[in-house]
Every structure is written in structure tokens, then in C-alpha cells.
Specification:
The protein is built from 26 helices and two strands. The protein is mainly alpha-helical and 612 residues long. A two-stranded antiparallel ribbon has the order 1-2. Strand 1 and strand 2 form a beta hairpin. The radius of gyration is 40 Å and the shape is globular. It starts with 15 loop residues before the first helix and ends with a helix.
Length: 612
């Protein structure tokens, strides 16, 4: 059946007779068709608008000639034309007006999306821009002022930006003085390259090799577990034990290695304590339910049910204790590294730059003198950190801190069992661990007895002639580091007669405590280069006159009390280390502070001479 076509064509209105004939046959007339047309348009437009709004898009996609249509940009397919109208109406309908596009949600989020896109592009090209445009932007500095100290300042500013942003590795940035100082005629190549392997670098390298041996044979883990078993498992004691052990180990090995070793032990103890607490709560809950059931059977009894508040509070207390136990390890590792000269990189930077910036200081700063100054400070800071963590996370509650009650006793027992189990896994003291421990004690005793200050040391016996001291702390460190490649890790077998054929094929001298493969993998060689770059910068500041120029610019600070200056500079360095490494920060600021000190001392001497 086909749609009826009016006589005269679709555009000619039908006559009255024809209209009456349509109506007699049940076919709707023009008025009825017009009403149906309006209703159909409204229905089709509403459904089309709902369809568009559900898909979350604007105006429908209009394909160009030749397009076959396809999925919309939002991932769904839209029809290319409005839905078909009812049969019999299409020839009489005028072309529908384009539908008004509903408001698209994409329009409301276009601005944030554009900002996110812009930020992604900035992040994408940030390293490229800093790496290549920073030297060009700083170039007018040395063009307008071609003085020697300005060229040195150009190198220092460039290295500071690279160190802070880490667009290239820190160790690679540290090699820039070896390239730029000769090119800018600040220092010749021989003078620069000598700074990268000084006595201080060898001291730090020897200490790192000894630390590698301690880590390789798990001696640090045995010391930590044995100490924690001796301290006890009460919460306050356990946290103090964790901090004490971590601080002691970080005095001799790197802070990162100490933290990496201690955190798994802390996590194992906390997990066992959590499991024990859960089991204890379950058993106590069953007992309470049984007691309440019995009490409800008694006449006139009143049963008070505890809400979930108590459980939530205990859960918060456990989370706080977990945070305190984890943070205490990180704090103690940073604090403990300050106690010894080789405990952390900034201490070694100070030692090396003391010799450069103050040549007359000679052997004022050595291992023994630094330990005597820094160890009491480390103990005080450690106790203050412990008290701070107690106040913030655990509170000064005797019951909570020192463990009273059934649950506390169960937690202590669980923690103690975990420590015992971890210690049992290490087995008995091995021959290698004993030898590493002996080498460690030898290193520390030789460091302390070389030149203790209050009495003659072994240095004065045969290795000192007048003002010349032939042996230093670096000599001791390298001596013990070489011993680790010689001392055997197993007992040599002297029973040649009773050996089997296979045992005779084995070399008589067992493998040493360390081999070069392990040392090469575990020693952070980048820090050695970082120290060398710092020493090269200090030498450049001294030779170019930059240190003297910076000191003169800070003359107005002489009116400020020394205590205030110390506080201001401490805060400045503390803020600066939040965005760059400690060694790089120390390397940058030490020459500036040394210049201030020299000028302050000079001013004080002049004032003293002019006083009546």
C-alpha cells in the first residue's frame, strides 16, 4: 500500500469534493493531517533531544558527501537523520527545522581540560627547557661582566639549578666544573681534576666499603634484632629500641640502607601485634556475649551494650602506633648519621672544604674530635624526637606507653616472638660475621686512637715529622677496606691427609669477605663524584675571588647578633634541602658561610685593634 497522493501534485491543495471523498473513505483530511504533523514533530523532536542529551554531545554529526557515517567522537553512533514520521504524513510534511542542540557537558569542562592539557605540555618540555635554555638565559651575565668571579658564579648558578631540578643526574652535574672551569679560564684542568679524588673522598670510600661488608653478611640485622630483644617489647621501649638501633647503625652505614633494613622488621612486628589484638578482641567479645546472656536471664538485670565507639578508638590508637613506629626509623636514621664523620655526606663535605677554605685548620676536624662534638648532640636530638612522637601519636599515657592490661601483654608477647623468630632465622654466628665484626672494631679503634687530642696517638709514633702527618683517617679506612678483600669468609682446612678428592680440588684459601662484583654493585659511586664536584666548586670560589666578593656583600649582616644569623641560616638551609639533596645544599652554602665568617673575623680583629 502506498501513501495517497493528492491530485495535481503534492504542492496543489485538494478540492472540497476530493476532501469529502477522503473523509468518506476514512482517510484524514488536511486539518487532521496538519494536527498529526504537529504532534509527530513534537514527539520526534523530543525523542531526538533525549537521545542527544543521553549521549552527552552537542549538535549531531552531519556527514560530508561521500561519508558513510561512523562512530561519534564520544564512542557511540548517532543516527544521521531524525527518526521516520508516521506513514501517510511524510509527503505532506514540510522539511523539519534543525533541532536546537542541547547544552553539552563538554562545554562546561572545556576550560579545565584545556588547562590540564597545557600543564601536560609544560611538564613534557620542562626538562628540555631547563636543560637547554638555562645556560642561554644566564649567558648575558658573563657577557656584560666578564670578570673571573662572575664566570665562576655562572657555573655555580647553573649547577645549582641542575641540582635542584635534577634534569640530569646529580653525579653528572658534579662533573661540570671539570668541563667549564678550564673553558672559562677559572682553573686549569689539572687543578680541577685533583679535587675529585682527595683525601676526604678516600675516607668516605673506605667507610662505604666497610658498610657494604656489614650489609653483605647481615651483621647489621643481627645487631638490630639482638638489641631489640634486650630492650623489650613494650610500646614505648620498643619505639626507643628501634630508634636507638637505627641511629647506631646509621653512624656507620648509609641512612638509606639502615632504613631499608629496619622497616621490614618494624612491619613484621606491627603485623603480628595486629593479628594478636584481633584474636584477643574476638575471644574477649565471645566472653562478654556469654556473660551478657547469663545476666539477661536474671530477674531485674540491666545489660548495658557497648557501642562501636570503643572499637573505633582502639583502631585509631593502633594506626597511630603504626605511624609512630614507622616514622621513628626514618627520624633516627637521619639523626644518627650526624654522630660520625662518615655517617652522612654533608659531614664529609665539611671536612673537605675545611681544608680548602681554612688551610691553617690542619687536623682540627678528625674522627675523634667530630665524634666528641656530635655524639652528645645526636643523643639529645634522638630523645627529643622520641618524646615528640610519643606526644603526637601515642600520648603520655602510662597504661598505653608501658603496656598494662591483657591486650598489651599479648601484643608484647607477639612482638617478642616475632623478634625471636627473625633472630632464629639468622642462625648461629658465622665465621664471616665474626671477621667482619673484628674488622669493624679495628676500624673504629684506629680512628679514635690515631690522634685523640688529650693524649698522644699512634700517629705520633712513626708517622709524624714536625708539621707533616703522613697518615690520616683516610689511611685507616683504606687499610681496613683492603683487609676485607683478604680476610677469608670460611675457616681454612688444614687436614690435608684426611681430605677427599673433591676437597683437594678446592683452593686452600677460602673466598674473601668481599669481592669486587659485590662492591661495585653496592657502593654509591655517584656520591664520590658529588663530593668531588663540591670540592672543585670550593676551589673555584677561592681562586676566582667569588668568596671574598660574597662576603663583602653581606657586610650589613654584621649588625645582626650571631645567634640570629645562625637561626636564619639554619632555617634557610633547612628549607632549601626540601627540594634538593643534602650533599648538594652543603656544597653550595658552605663557601658562602665561610666567606661571611672570614669577613666577620676580620672585622672583629680590626675593631679590637682600634679600641683604646
Amino acid at each position: 500500500m502506498t501513501d495517497p497522493i493528492p491530485p495535481g501534485g503534492p504542492g496543489v491543495p485538494p478540492s472540497r469534493t476530493v476532501r469529502e471523498g477522503w473523509e468518506s473513505h476514512g482517510v484524514p483530511g488536511p486539518q487532521s493531517l496538519q494536527a498529526g504533523r504537529s504532534q509527530a514533530l513534537e514527539s520526534a523532536g523530543a525523542s531526538w533531544s533525549r537521545r542527544v542529551a543521553e549521549l552527552g554531545v552537542g549538535a549531531p554529526h552531519r556527514p560530508r558527501p561521500g561519508d558513510a557515517g561512523g562512530p561519534h567522537r564520544g564512542g557511540a553512533e548517532l543516527p544521521l537523520s531524525p527518526p521516520p514520521h508516521p506513514r501517510g504524513l511524510w509527503p505532506l510534511l514540510k522539511p523539519a527545522e534543525p533541532l536546537a542542540a542541547p547544552h553539552s557537558p563538554l562545554q562546561s569542562v572545556s576550560l579545565p581540560r584545556a588547562m590540564a592539557s597545557a600543564l601536560s605540555y609544560v611538564s613534557k618540555f620542562k626538562s628540555f627547557a631547563i636543560l637547554f635554555f638555562t645556560p642561554l638565559l644566564l649567558l648575558p651575565l658573563i657577557i656584560l661582566m666578564p670578570a673571573k668571579f662572575v664566570r665562576c658564579a655562572y657555573v655555580i648558578i647553573l649547577m645549582a639549578i641542575y641540582w635542584c631540578t635534577e634534569v640530569i643526574p646529580l653525579a653528572v652535574t658534579s662533573l661540570m666544573p671539570a668541563l667549564l672551569f678550564p673553558l672559562l679560564k677559572i682553573l686549569d684542568s689539572k687543578q680541577v681534576c685533583v679535587q675529585y679524588m682527595k683525601d676526604t673522598n678516600m675516607l668516605f670510600l673506605g667507610g662505604l666499603i666497610v658498610a657494604v661488608a656489614v650489609e653483605h653478611w647481615n651483621l647489621h640485622k643481627r645487631i638490630a634484632l639482638r638489641t631489640l630483644l634486650w630492650v623489650g617489647a613494650k610500646p614505648a621501649q620498643l619505639m626507643l629500641g628501634f630508634m636507638g638501633v637505627t641511629a647506631f647503625l646509621s653512624m656507620w652505614i648509609s641512612n638509606t640502607a639502615t632504613t631499608a633494613m629496619m622497616v621490614p622488621i618494624v612491619e613484621a612486628v606491627l603485623q603480628q601485634m595486629e593479628a594478636t589484638s584481633t584474636a584477643t578482641e574476638a575471644s574477649l567479645g565471645a566472653l562478654e556475649l556469654a556473660d551478657k546472656g547469663k545476666a539477661s536471664e536474671l530477674p531485674g538485670s540491666q545489660v548495658i551494650f557497648e557501642g562501636p565507639a570503643m572499637g573505633q578508638r582502639e583502631n585509631c590508637d593502633r594506626k597511630s602506633m603504626c605511624k609512630a613506629m614507622t616514622l621513628c626509623v626514618c627520624y633516627a636514621a637521619s639523626i644518627g648519621g650526624t654522630a660520625t664523620l662518615t655517617g652522612t655526606g654533608p659531614n664529609v663535605v665539611l671536612l673537605g672544604q675545611m681544608h680548602e677554605l681554612f688551610p691553617d685548620s690542619k687536623d682540627t676536624v678528625n674522627f675523634a674530635s667530630w665524634f666528641g662534638f656530635a655524639f652528645p648532640n645526636m643523643v639529645i636530638m634522638l630523645l627529643l624526637a622520641w618524646l615528640w612522637l610519643q606526644c603526637i601519636y601515642m600520648g603520655f599515657n602510662f597504661k598505653k606507653s608501658w603496656g598494662c592490661g591483657l591486650e598489651r601483654k599479648n601484643n608484647e608477647k607477639a612482638a617478642y616472638e616475632v623478634l625471636q623468630e627473625e633472630y632464629r632465622k639468622l642462625g648461629p654466628f658465622s665465621f664471616a660475621e665474626v671477621n667482619v665484626l673484628l674488622c669493624f672494631f679495628l676500624l673504629v679503634s684506629l680512628w679514635f686512637s690515631r690522634d685523640p687530642g688529650f693524649m698522644p696517638g699512634w700517629l705520633s709514633v712513626a708517622w709524624a715529622e714536625g708539621e707533616t702527618q703522613y697518615a690520616s683517617d683516610a689511611t685507616v679506612a683504606i687499610f681496613v677496606a683492603m683487609l676485607l678483600f683478604v680476610v677469608p669468609s670460611q675457616k681454612p682446612k688444614f687436614n690435608f691427609c684426611s681430605q677427599t678428592e673433591e676437597e683437594r680440588k678446592i683452593p686452600f684459601y677460602p673466598p674473601a669477605l668481599l669481592n669486587w662484583k659485590v662492591t661495585q654493585e653496592k657502593v654509591p659511586w655517584g656520591i664520590v663524584l658529588l663530593l668531588g664536584g663540591g670540592f672543585a666548586l670550593a676551589k673555584g670560589c677561592e681562586v676566582s675571588g667569588l668568596s671574598e666578593w660574597m662576603g663583602k656583600q653581606m657586610e650589613p649582616l654584621h649588625a645582626v647578633p650571631p645567634a640570629a644569623i645562625t637561626l636564619i641560616l639554619s632555617l634557610l638551609v633547612a628549607v632549601f634541602t626540601e627540594c634538593t639533596s643534602n650533599v648538594a645544599t652543603t656544597t653550595l652554602f658552605l663557601p658562602i658561610f665561610a666567606s661571611m665568617l672570614q669577613l666577620h673575623m676580620y672585622t672583629a680583629v680590626v675593631r679590637h685593634l682600634h679600641c683604646p
